[in-house]
Amino acid sequence: MIKRNIIIDCDPGIDDVVALCFMFANEDKFNILGITTVAGNQTIENVTNNALGLMSFLNKDIKIARGAKGPLLREKRPASNVHGANGVGDYQFPQTKELYSDNAVTFLRDTIMSADDKVTLIPVGPLTNIALLIKTFPEVISKIELLSIMGGATIGGNATPTAEFNIWADPEAARIVFDSKIPIVMSGLNVTHSTGLYRNDVDELMKSTGKVTKMCGEIMNFYFKGDHVKKGTFSPIHDACAIMYLIHPELYEFRHMPVKVDCSEELSRGNTVCDVREWFDYDETYPKVLTCVDLEKFRDILLEDLYRLDKMYK
Ligand code: BDR
Ligand code: CA
User: Fold this and answer.
1) Binding site membership of 158 for ligand 1 (Cβ less than 6 Å)
2) What stretches of the chain adopt beta strand conformation (E)?
3) CATH topology of domain 4-313
């Protein structure tokens, strides 16, 4: 099996941490070329510490590059209400690993251009780093295989009634990315609200004696306290969706359609306007928007893989 070259651009973030663990459980399918961080769920200092902390916890020597401190134009507004003051629900990771680069954009350029083959980027935070990369080093565009993005929604939002957090956090960056013509798969809230775990799953994870699953249970328990959770019974793990698609695309239904980002200062700022009108037939040059997922299979695979990762730490 040919391994896919990947770089994940993230803002850990509770669901980012679970997604990263899921990625490591599937390391046999990926060449993980690095992790870049971006301010989003928390400050750039906190999210970078969390990425380094997780690598220390998992004892992984993955290159980590620190990215943008905030959005292109607006002030940053961390999601402490969802992810806690340190970004991972107050969980304390060990800190034994060091930053590889303090410039995510040049790290991305250098890594993509020197890779043996095309690279898939997995942006699961605000799109600031990716927009800066595209504008500063457009030569990377032809070497990017795919952007598997967690962000947006075909309808609705979570940061506001009309905007999903990652897009709302930096709409101007998101517009640059969605207008770039790079192949995109969009995991929006319309699917990620069905990609997650039940309250009972998290209770079981918390009782686990496995290193990874117990940690995931503890941080997910914090996540469950947020008001984004459906009546306390099910919680999305948004960011894992963008990785799951790369491993199990058969779990999803999708349609290609134009996606335009609203950068106005009006009520719908940060909205991803998706042309879902069924009587238009858009070809594959338009973003592939995931429209439906098999929730139970997603949950089964995610849990199985997290428990499998435990076995590497026995
Ligand atoms: C997205 O926003 C963040 O809070 C999560 O980590 C995820 O990337 C969901 O809207
Ligand atoms: Ca995230």
Assistant:
1) yes
2) 4-10, 30-37, 64-66, 119-123, 144-150, 184-187, 196-198, 234-236, 252-256, 259-261, 272-274, 288-293
3) Inosine-uridine Nucleoside N-ribohydrolase; Chain A (3.90.245)
